[in-house]
């Protein structure tokens, strides 16, 4: 029912909730939430709806997949998540990480070091057939 456990984790984090807090708000055991987030459980519809309602109460909406939209998370304007600045803080951290990575790569290029390998690329070793 949940396309990806990562969507639920992202929603919980954006809501500023710990696993015990979300589990309590949804009326489920923490172990059940952990299993769902780790992809070890296919939850019942009633469990998914309880989680959706608990997140919605914090201004976080799970968006169902359609032809135009992939699964995702929306933050409701004026919600607790927005007031807490969680969205802005996450965006700032992402920007800082991207800048740090760019600076490291540019610094290596200036010193004549090769760029880091592209993810998924194969590495060739001399002398190996």
Question: Please, could you describe this protein's structure?
Answer:
With 129 residues, this protein is mainly alpha-helical. Helices cover 52% and strands 6% of the residues. It has a two-stranded antiparallel sheet. The relative contact order is 0.12. The mean pLDDT is 74.
Looking at this protein, list some descriptive labels:
129 residues; mainly alpha; two-stranded antiparallel sheet; 2 strands; 52% helix; elongated
Give the secondary structure arrangement, pairings included.
Layout: H1 5-14, H2 19-26, H3 30-37, H4 45-56, E1 60-63, E2 72-75, H5 80-83, H6 86-110
Antiparallel strand pairs: 1-2
The DSSP helix count reads 6
Measured as a percent range, the helix fraction is 40-55%
Number of E-type strands: 2
- Contiguous low-pLDDT stretches (5 residues minimum) are none
Helix- and strand-based class?
A: mainly alpha
Q: What would you call the shape?
A: elongated
Element pattern in H and E: HHHHEEHH
Strand order of the largest sheet: 1-2
Cα radius of gyration in angstroms: 20 Å
Distance between the termini: 46 Å
Our estimate of the beta-strand percent is 5-15%
**Biggest β-sheet strands, sense, barrel:** 2 strands, antiparallel
Average pLDDT, rounded to a whole number, is: 74
């Amino acid at each position: 029912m949940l396309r990806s456990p990562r969507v639920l984790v992202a929603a919980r984090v954006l809501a500023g909730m710990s696993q015990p807090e979300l589990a309590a708000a949804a009326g489920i055991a923490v172990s059940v939430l952990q299993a769902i987030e780790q992809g070890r459980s296919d939850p019942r519809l009633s469990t998914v709806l309880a989680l959706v309602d608990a997140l919605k109460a914090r201004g976080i909406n799970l968006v169902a997949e359609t032809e135009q939209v992939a699964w995702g998370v929306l933050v409701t304007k004026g919600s607790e998540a927005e007031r807490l600045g969680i969205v802005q803080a996450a965006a700032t951290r992402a920007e800082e990480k991207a800048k740090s990575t760019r600076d490291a790569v540019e610094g290596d290029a200036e010193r004549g070091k090769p760029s880091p390998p592209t993810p998924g690329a194969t590495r060739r070793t001399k002398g190996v057939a």
